[in-house]
């Protein structure tokens, strides 16, 4: 069974937003970092990761970051990424985007549900959560393959 462990908010001012949630709710906060698609700060109550994302473009986000703020997606931690993907696609979900490489610590495989809502799955968990999988030995770790992923969509050139 998959477990909800991640909610991502698209924000315009990441530092101000992180200050708010840290002070207002007492959440634990990570340092700000830069990923391939967004600047990010993670906050957590210890069980669920709240990702604040200040997107750089529509690549990987599917939205115009100058116009969209709010809940962008949510994530599930699962035990077997490939089996979960098969189940998602059988139920009508569509592959959207791989964020990172399957062996990366912060890898996420993103899908759209039948309404177009984005969600992701991973098997290692998210930063600051109790279920975050620590580094495993090569023998004990399941190898996640790229075979089930669809090719990444190329970014469309913006018209001027």
Offer a quick outline of the entry.
This protein is an alpha+beta fold and 160 residues long. The protein has two helices and nine strands.
Distance between the termini: 46 Å
How many domains make up the coordinates? 1
Any guess at the CATH architecture? Roll
Percent of residues in helices comes to 10-25%
* String of helices and strands: EHEEEEEHEEE
**Assembly of the depicted chains:** single chain
Percent of residues in beta strands:
25-35%
Number of strands: 9
Task: State mean pLDDT (0 to 100 scale).
Answer: 86
CATH class, please?
Alpha Beta
The SS-based structural class is: alpha+beta
Which fold does the CATH topology refer to? 2,3-Dihydroxybiphenyl 1,2-Dioxygenase, domain 1
The dominant shape is: globular
Describe how the helices and strands are arranged:
Elements: E1 3-10, H1 14-25, E2 28-29, E3 33-34, E4 38-44, E5 49-55, E6 70-77, H2 81-90, E7 94-99, E8 108-112, E9 118-122
Parallel strand pairs: 1-5, 6-9
Antiparallel strand pairs: 1-6, 2-4, 3-4, 4-5, 7-8, 8-9
Folded structure, characterized:
The protein is an alpha+beta fold and 160 residues long. The chain has a single domain, classed as Roll (2,3-Dihydroxybiphenyl 1,2-Dioxygenase, domain 1), CATH 3.10.180. The chain is built from two helices and nine strands; from the N terminus they run E-H-E-E-E-E-E-H-E-E-E. The chain has helices spanning 14-25, 81-90, and strands at residues 3-10, 28-29, 33-34, 38-44, 49-55, 70-77, 94-99, 108-112, 118-122. Strands 1, 2, 3, 4, 5, 6, 7, 8 and 9 form a nine-stranded mixed β-sheet that branches. It is globular. The model is unreliable at 135-142 (pLDDT under 50).
């Amino acid at each position: 069974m998959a477990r909800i462990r991640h909610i991502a908010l698209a924000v315009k001012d990441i530092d101000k937003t992180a200050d708010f949630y840290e002070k207002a709710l007492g959440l634990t906060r990570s340092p700000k970092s830069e990923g391939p698609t967004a600047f990010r700060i993670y906050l957590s109550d210890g069980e669920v990761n709240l990702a604040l994302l200040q997107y750089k473009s529509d690549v990987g986000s599917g939205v115009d970051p100058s116009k969209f703020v709010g809940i962008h997606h949510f994530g599930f931690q699962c035990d077997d990424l490939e089996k979960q993907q098969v189940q998602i696609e059988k139920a009508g979900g569509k592959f959207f985007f791989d964020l990172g490489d399957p062996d990366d610590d912060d890898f996420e495989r993103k899908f759209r549900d039948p309404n177009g809502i984005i969600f992701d799955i991973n098997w290692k968990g998210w930063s600051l959560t109790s279920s975050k999988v620590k580094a495993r030995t090569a023998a004990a770790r399941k190898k996640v393959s790229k075979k089930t992923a669809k090719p990444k969509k190329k970014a469309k050139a913006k018209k001027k």
